[in-house]
Amino acid sequence: MSTEKISISRRNLFRTAALAAGATTLTATQAQAKRKKKKVSLNMNDTILFQGDSITDAGRDKGNANANDFGALGRGYANMIASQLLGGHAAEKLQCLNRGISGHKVPDLAARWQADTIDLQPALLSILIGVNDIWHARAGKYDGTVADYETGFAALLKETREALPETALVICEPFVLRCGAIDDTWFPEFDERRAVAKKVAKDAGALWVPFQSMFDDAVSEATPPAYWAGDGVHPTMAGHALMAKTWLDVTGLG
Fold it and tell me: How many CA atoms lie within 13 A of 112 on its CB side?
């Protein structure tokens, strides 16, 4: 083979390699951009609303409807997240609200959704609901099935999307830890309900916060289930702190 042919072959090889590298870079850039699109952005005077049951409620003063107030936000993850947002995004003058109510299920949220969510016009809405939907059914206080949970939750998010098309939705995974009130009889139904929540969140185009897998990964010999949630359902201070960190990581607002 002549020297000229070898030179041409080498040039072609380098050009091919460069094109491949460029394509790889472009693909990586596109993937990064796609991931960034899923993050939440905040604007001036935006309202951030936390909805759910007792885990979100966390002993809040229900007679206090003020934004950015310790008593009104409760003692749990919602307060911890709000504190981080208010400190880290001070220029935006955010309004953080908590409307979680202990004992509530999806039908209970639906019954108060207009006043406690739609009318508040949140720019970001975070929902954690589902443990009572199975707990109350197991206690004979409610006859809702997994299918009812899916239908009701999907309808709630559909209503929200129609009324608040610009609102960013964050759906938090229902979770339990194997201690306290939680035993093997909760499964596999609880896992079915978790799967339903994830499906509903995906269908609604919401961000998904994987609290169950987060706690599963956090449990160890040094930090057993009760370290994170004494009764298997309601988080300890450490549990709430871990939830807040994960929520902020998923939304990109940390």
Answer: 12
Count other C-beta atoms under 10 Å from residue 114's C-beta.
12
SS (H, E, C) 56-100: HHCCCCCCCCCCCCHHHHCCCHHHHHHHHHHHHCHHHCCEEEECC
Q: What is the CATH number of domain 42-251?
A: 3.40.50.1110
Q: What residue ranges do the domains of the chain occupy?
A: 1-37, 42-251
Average of per-residue pLDDT across 130-159: 97
**pLDDT above 90: percentage of residues in the chain:** 84
39 pLDDT band, cuts 50/70/90, is confident
Rounded to 10°, the helix 237-251/77-88 angle is: 50
Q: pLDDT (tens digit, 9 = 90+) per residue, 192-241?
A: 999 999 999 999 999 999 999 999 999 999 999 999 999 999 999 999 99
Q: Are strands 168-172 and 124-128 parallel, antiparallel or unpaired?
A: parallel
